[in-house]
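Researcher: Next sequence.
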Amino acid sequence: METPASSEDGNDKILSDTVSAFTPDTDSVAALSSSMRDTGITVTHPDDIPLPNIRKLEGRSQWLSFKNEIIQSLSVSNSTGYLIGQIPPGGTELCDQHIKSWLYNSLSPTLQRSILQYLHPYVPKDHTTKDFWDALHAAYNGSCHKYQAFAKFMKLSRSDYSSVRDFTTALIHSLLCCWELGFKMDELAGIVKLVEELDAERPTWCDEVWEQTMDDDSYSFRELIQQANDGVLSIAELPTKSPADTTTESTPYSNDNKCSHCEGAHKINRCWYLHPNQRPKKWIPKRGIYAVPAKG
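Model: Next structure:
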């Protein structure tokens, strides 16, 4: 009699199937490249895209530097379009798979497992580099994502749910999201309003639902409610708009092009090229930009 597969075996099977989507098929790459050359069509082979080894992403604090390294590395071969779902001229889906594999291998083992579990229920197995990058961006994008989680928590209302159980489940998920994003408990002031809304129905759900604890065994949701009832938590108003995101660029695939000298829409080296009278005399242009002799 066969032994039923455990849930852990099932999870490992899902992860192994998903990991296989990150492994480029080298035989297919070679065959396609050869076929394209025979027909006179020029394409980019994945090996032609230089992808250096970068410091592995291990957590939120490294996200900004990690993101900039990814963008700069892909900019060398004009391959940043893969991050937004736009395959550049000469590119192929195999190149997309190659870059996705590189992104995956640039994560720590812990994040590799968690990001696969995040991706699996929401996107197909053959997800693209864009799907993978969007998942990373949503998970680690800094203050704007933090604001959105807090705004969602503050707007939760019992009237939006058909049952107390559905409402408390949504509340728990929202609280955990805020907790993971680094909120201190005294910032979750909306719990006061929520507890007041549930006060009349508390006997039916308090013991059953709020016994759940967070990762920190020393702190429970029951204690959180008690703090709210004791007036330890103060009520705070929800901001009228999202705070400026000072940790990321405006888009996940572009660099900040604002000149630090004249605040124009170009880099500082371009500025010295456009304004030769103002640039330093010892300025050395980058490759491909020829200096104009400075006057005086």
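Model: The mean pLDDT is 60. Residues 145-231 form one domain.
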